[in-house]
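Field: sequence (string)
Field: structure_tokens (string)

Example rows 1 and 2, in order.
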Amino acid sequence: MAGKKKEYDLEKRTLEFAKDILRLCKKLPESYINRELTSQLVRSSGSVGANYREANEALGKKDFSYRMRIARKECKESSYWLALVEEANPALSNGHLYKPIVMSLRGASSDEAISINQVFMGDCRAPSGLAMTA
């Protein structure tokens, strides 16, 4: 198993978070507002995991901290866009046909965004074995 990189739990969780967002966005009704909101939401949710993976390949402590702060920022941004998607689609949260989607995906994704963000809040320090770059 030499050469195999350890897969971190947060790498899986952030990927699943982005996939949940994609599935939710595909289910939303077509409209100008939803197009704009989902565009932002898809970008920010995908950026969480991308920046976390970049942090795991950091060139030094500063790079690691920088990437983790960006991942945290994108996580907060995803929560913001999720709230706006819900506001723009009130039928999704008050018994309409899409309620199961909102409850299973948006609700879970929102909780996951908060959970992942809490992990990032305490994880912006570089691992002790990481060399400092100039």
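Row 2 begins here:
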Amino acid sequence: MMAKQQKRVVKAAPSASLSSRSSGMFGAKKYLLMRAMLAVLIGMTLFMQMMAWSLVAEKEQRQNTDSRKLTIIDDERIKNQNPHLTRSFVPVAADGLQMYTREMARRAIRSVPWTCGDERVVIDTLTDFRPIFSFVHVFKTAGSTLRDFFKRYSLICRKSWMTLISCSEVKSSSIRANEDWKRCRVKEVVNGRQINILDNVDDAKAEIPYPTVNNTVLRESIDIYGGHIRIGSGDFIHGGSTATGSPAQPPPVRHIVFLRDPMTRFVSGILYEQKKGTMKEGDTDLTGTVKLIKKRVRGSRKANEYWKKSTKYLLTPVQSENIANMTVAMNIGLTLEETRAYAQALTAIHNLVHYNVIMGMAEHMAQSMTILRHALLSDRFTDDDRREYVDVLFESYGNERSMEKNDERSNDRPKEKINLSERDGVSTALVLGELKKDDDFMPIFQEYVKYEQMINDFATEMHQMQFEEAKQKSLSKQ
């Protein structure tokens, strides 16, 4: 833009001397050169940081002598089950990205040591801390259904569940200082430790005993917490930073993350905004919605923007703040947008591996519930009735349609839930079907979500490994 402005000045002043013209051209070239050098410098810095993380993970993995150790790319059974995954979307350490192994999958889904129905506190011998789970609700990934699931699970097994809202922008300084988490609110708490109701789970009333949340509340009173929060928000729950965990020595707070096909999530998000009335642009029928999505995607790509919604939750509070500060301090322009999107995707993948998250996929709820069942239950129950209730719980939420029933306003029965993303004969599937008919638009759409796709494909591989481990362990119990 500056170069163009300088050219206009030259044309508007034809009497300018040759030396002044040369000076203007030299200044424009110098500006472009400095901009290019800045881009290279930032790219190299981010690349070196990613490589450092990768080398640490690789060193830890070399120390693991388990004979069943397999990398994503090496596990032929999983590759055959997912033929659509190409090497470009299956990152391994040799490519500067993370590796994930069967041993890590086994550790991720290890059974919690508590007994379902026993409210007493236990210690996880692997971490030497009380087990705490953090559900990271990524936008449009069946989160409302899963929050309902955790609420019911907590009542049946006599554990405590806390729903958090507006927490994705919580300040890392308030977390580290053990202050109340700024910009974060408690929506409800269900404390199964204090109430022992089994036949009337639907009648249990949620409370708001804490006006806000902090590390002390979570450490002393909560077994499972979740909502729109960032991964790693619980790194200081047990006092000093516990962010130094690794797949070999996992962080005490165990993370649960669900993801979903990026295009599906994007379309579902548009329908959700239309239904809530937060989006006034265009008609809300099928034709109008398709037109609106095409306009948005094309406009974003024209501005060299990429969709990276999941990084709002898959970057830690500190990482998010560092990237924001770098953007402001260095005044990064649109020409560096892809570098930034790529770096954020790499960091998100690193976090999935570093925290060794329990990985669910909204399209595969049955498999995801198999994984969650193995992680949340030790196969110890205080009574047979509780075991039967648990069986019904996991079976009902493992129904593939349960993730489509997704509305915070409805009652607790998943089969009766109404999907805010489907209305007036317009559904996510119908809109996607119309978009896919446009051969000119789809490559643009794919480019727009490609870094979300990169994260999603890596997560799918993690999910498949964890499901294989959970299935194998389930068979061994029979």
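free_text_note (row 2): Residues 110 and 375 are 5 Å apart (CA to CA).
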